[in-house]
Amino acid sequence: MTVEEHGFAPGTDVLIRKVDSHLTALRGSLRGPELELAEGLARSLRELVISTAQASAADRGQVRAAVHYFVLRRESRGNLLSVRSLAAAQRVVNKVVRQLGRPELLVETRRDRPARETAVSAGDAALR
Prior knowledge:
The protein is an all-alpha fold.
């Protein structure tokens, strides 16, 4: 019996292709903040897939579930994600990001950023 070594766990490239393919479909129908949210989710998911390729089965399973939630979550009447579904996918992805200890991969919406940036700016001003 021969043991083969792989750079990535089986399915890693499949998951990334699913994310990229879904994002391509979304680009045809989304604009503005919704498209930014979809692109942010895709970026975060790609990084999670790559960074957990050699992780435990439990961690890989969480990432796989988040990918499937993003890719397969659809409205009953259409083929594309609704804005509400994107927000639900954001919650799922951010939950996985937190559980895996990767806060730098949190996906924020445009309306989430100003409050955070204001707090950071105020903190910077206090240090001066």
